[in-house]
Amino acid sequence: MRADIVPGGHFPDYELPDQTGKRHHLSELQGNDPMIVLLLRGLF
Question: What's the pTM value of the predicted model, to 2 decimals?
């Protein structure tokens, strides 16, 4: 686990692409609402 991701801390404002390739910051998607981010390994 990264040292800057700790329980109760602030999550980094990652930039991720959508299905069209346009990049969005998590803070842009979140707005003023709470957000839950799940980081899962694929079990396909």
Answer: 0.56
